[in-house]
Amino acid sequence: MNASEDSLAPEVRSILDAARERPGGDEPVAVTARSFPDAVAATEAAGRIPVVAEVKPTSPTTAGERTDDPVELAREMVAGGATALSVLTEPDHFGGSVESLRRIREAVDVPVLRKDFVVNESQLDAVESDLVLLIARFLGDDLSDLVTAAKERGFQPLVEVHDRDELGRALDAGADIIGVNNRDLATLAVDLETFESVAPHVPDDVTLLAESGVTSAEDARRMRAAGADALLIGTAIMDGDVRANTDRFSNATAKTELSE
């Protein structure tokens, strides 16, 4: 374990350890991806907030578990206005699976992000998706190689960062879709000021997401005002009626019309 990993919360270290044990695919996939930046632009042109709604059966930071059919949840999210979907494929801590992602992607016509903890190139080949999450803090010096490998397969890599140093490494690696995670992986605390501190340093030609901590209309307005092109929302959508919750965040303009 390196010094950076030693600072991770125990729950996060457990996730990372499990990720290192999971096999990848047998051969490289070739993906024809649905464009996430185009989907964001279309949503904004329609006067709505681009929302990436997350199919997340459970997580170490939430109570309980959703046992609904993930395909039906995904369809309801799209019906509620989701611009794209994030689908957990991590099985041990989040109740996800690559089979759920495969079924969901076949059932919807919006871009689908594979949210997992990819730590080596072969794991990119576990399943086709439109976007794949790469976490800068987990990948260290391997980040650039993984971004390149993902793009070679046709994926749109979403590189997750938490601070300006990680942002710099993501940009150097060629990332053009970046998510700023408001959750600190060392403490699991969430602070929306994290996005506000990093966003001003992101180039205009990068598609920028705010991740974690958006639980209300006020939060959504705040992140959009700070520069978020899209919002990745998990618990606040999964907790209750997913269609209504997705609509609550997406079916309004960002700064003036969104209400609680």
Verbal overview:
Helix 4 links the parallel strand 1 and strand 2. This protein has 13 helices and eight strands. With 260 residues, it is an alpha/beta fold. It has an eight-stranded parallel barrel with strand order 1-2-3-4-5-6-7-8, surrounded by seven helices. The relative contact order is 0.17. The protein has one domain: Aldolase class I (TIM Barrel, Alpha-Beta Barrel). Helix content is 39%, strand content 15%.
Keywords for this structure?
alpha/beta, TIM Barrel, eight-stranded parallel β-barrel, 8 strands, lyase, indole-3-glycerol-phosphate synthase activity, phosphoribosylanthranilate isomerase activity, aromatic amino acid biosynthesis
Q: Given the helix and strand composition, which structural class is it?
A: alpha/beta
- Lateral arrangement of strands in the main beta sheet: 1-2-3-4-5-6-7-8
Q: Sheet with the most strands?
A: 8 strands, parallel, barrel
List the uncertain runs.
254-260
Radius of gyration computed on alpha carbons: 17 Å
Q: What's the order of the H and E elements?
A: HHHEHEHHEEHHEHEHEHEHH
Q: Supply the CATH class.
A: Alpha Beta
- CATH topology value: TIM Barrel
CATH architecture: Alpha-Beta Barrel
Any idea how many domains? 1
Let me know the average pLDDT. Answer: 90
The end-to-end span amounts to: 44 Å
What would you call the shape?
Answer: globular
Note the quaternary state here.
Answer: single chain
